[in-house]
Amino acid sequence: MKKYFISFLLLGLILDQPVFGQNKISAGVELDVLPYLTGGYFGAVWLGKGNVRGRALYASVNMPDFIVEEGFTNNQIKSFAVLGDYFFKSNFKGFWLGAGLVYWSGIIQSDQKIEKANYESYLVNGSMGYNLRLGKHFYLSPWAGLSLRVEGDRNIEVDGSIYNPPVLNPELSLKLGYQF
User: Fold this and answer.
1) Is residue 51 assigned to a domain?
2) CA dihedral 26, 41, 102, 111 (to 10 degrees)
3) How many domains are there within the chain?
4) What are all long-range contacts of 156-161, with beta carbons under 8 Å and residues at least 24 apart?
5) 3-class DSSP state for residue 22?
6) 128 in a structural domain
7) Is residue 15 part of a domain?
């Protein structure tokens, strides 16, 4: 993990140089509060120029039971996403809109907790947020998003019950970011 952090830090320092005397390419990393609150984790890296940035993220989330279909529990999701964001202000400040593709690998149990079932989902995501600067490099970004499930496993049998992942998946959280 330390090796990856140093690699991303060096990449950020290299990309922090002017390009043709114009806008420079920027890089950053983000952590999201929600996965950590559920006992999971989250990490994202991004590159951007002007008002546009691209992000790649990996997360592990233990979905709270109050949002899991009745009769099921322990919905654990590993997620990978590639997203693009547009900022209305320069230097990745203020309001932003984003969209991208998301892959989920999930494990779920029925309330009987006898066996576990694996499933996969492919989603399209739309999100929006606001980057609030905390000095030169750090920022907070409250955000909300909605993912539409477009493909993946259905009718997942677990302990004699059938689980179907939801078509719409709302999200709301807070990110802590660092821009190199």
Assistant:
1) yes
2) -170
3) 1
4) 156/108, 156/117, 156/119, 157/117, 158/72, 158/108, 158/109, 158/110, 158/115, 158/116, 158/117, 159/109, 159/110, 159/112, 159/113, 159/114, 159/115, 160/110, 161/71, 161/72, 161/110
5) coil
6) no
7) no
| One-character DSSP codes across 73-128 | EEEEEEEEEEEEEEESSGGG-EEEEEEEEEEEEEEEEETT-S-EEEEEEEEEEEEE
Asked if residue 68 belongs to a domain, the reply is yes
CA distance 65 to 59: 18
Q: Which two tokens stand for residue 133?
A: 């600067």
Pairwise CA distance, residues 32 & 142, whole Å: 10
Asked whether the CA dihedral 17, 50, 54, 179 is positive or negative, the reply is: positive
pLDDT digits (tens, 9 = 90+) for 90-146: 889 999 999 999 999 999 999 988 999 999 999 999 999 999 999 999 999 999 999
- The token pair at 175 is 């990110």
- What range defines the domain where residue 73 resides? 25-116+147-180
Rounded Cα gap, residues 137 and 154, in angstroms: 43
